[in-house]
Amino acid sequence: MARIAVLGAGLGGVIMAYELRDVLGKGHEVVVVNKGTTYSFVPSNPWVAVGWRDKEAIEVDLAPVFGKRDIRLHPQGAARVHPEENRIELSDGASVSYDFLVIATGPDLAFDEIEGFGPEHHTQSICHVDHALQAKAAFDRLVKNPGPVIIGAAQGASCYGPAYEFTFVLDKALRDAKVRDRVPMTFVTAEPYIGHLGLDGVGDTKTLLESEMRQHHVKWITNAKVDAVEAGRMLVSELAEDGALKASHALPFSYAMMLPAFRGVPAVRGIEGLTNPRGFILADRHQRNPTFRNVFSVGVCVAIPPVGKTPVPVGVPKTGFMIESMVTATAHNIARLVDGLEPEAEATWNAVCLADFGDGGVAFVAQPQIPPRNVNWSSSGKWVHAAKIGFEKYFLRKIRIGKSEPFYERLALQALGIDKLKAVKIDEQA
Ligand SMILES: Cc1cc2nc3c(=O)[nH]c(=O)nc-3n(C[C@H](O)[C@H](O)[C@H](O)COP(=O)(O)OP(=O)(O)OC[C@H]3O[C@@H](n4cnc5c(N)ncnc54)[C@H](O)[C@@H]3O)c2cc1C
Question: Ligand 1 pocket: which of 89, 105, 271 to mutate (most atoms <8 Å of CB)?
């Protein structure tokens, strides 16, 4: 009997636990270590930040569904992983030992890397639902007292879709409140061009998103490095192609929301052989750590190099479907190891993404996520808004019922030609 521990119960960790349960059967133990017992659907945070969703509507209590699926939950959180001892040290001093570990901790949010940055200082965040609630209170103040707005993503950020999404969601919410005419908006981003998204664009996201910005009266600054934030003022260096200073900006704002750079969480950061210098988990093409061979990783915590050199550091996003493909590959590889075989499944890392604009949106499919690609498609329209709502409801239902990929989802993905696994098909492994 093997014990497989999953560290983190976010988007990647919860479906990881469900898929392990599916492929391993009752003979083996699946345990999850998380901070708390609640799952929260991060992609809905932009809606929480303008009051279109309540916190409770996007949360699931994991205790009952984990109980039903025979998954043990340790809600204390991890203080430190000790991979050389096959042990997770919990924050209350207890320990969980494991035969295999899947790390799915998501990011640590590096607000402290810029003076005055983040929800404890002068800028809002939508990375966590509690930040989004705080951003909602700031939005209410903005509606009462309109003024300039800055939205964007800081140097080293690896999550750009939500910054664009929030720009247009906020634009719509301000139009609904009839104050948009008194709110000049500027998009400030580390990306070298609008629509780069950390992926060197997908399809023609450059034209699509520039056009949307123009139509919604949003100005932008690219190749931007935020130097410091003061109350009501952001100091930004705009760099040229060669990295030289092109312009210095002191931007006034009444409201600012910017995505921070991500790094690995303290429980894993600095472990020789496990993480890179930013604390992201090193993984081979089977999601397996090259040093600690019984440790796998999925989601935002995985180390992925940038797609190319840019004047300001720009990271690669890890989107939902890409994470699900990492999960499926990991489940099958661990099942093979438990059976005494070698891992062979590889995640496709396909990006399928919907960025909602409140009354429209932009969708893109990148297969694989890193160019050159076999599929490189983007499109916009009202249907994206409806599709994003459908995705939210569908994903939360999967979490509530304890199933990672119901058969109809697999059929739909097959029909669209979107695979989660590269090397070995799921049915061949069963
Ligand atoms: C605002 C926003 C919107 C996004 N929208 C989309 C979208 O529309 N579509 C899309 O495809 N992708 C989207 N993403 C990207 C991505 O899908 C999400 O970030 C996703 O939640 C990442 O999943 P994850 O499992 O890697 O991390 P998370 O979902 O962040 O989960 C990590 C979990 O690990 C836990 N944890 C951390 N440290 C510890 C510890 N020491 N001990 C125990 N537990 C710990 C956390 O509490 C959390 O539960 C969005 C990202 C953001 C930030």
Answer: 105
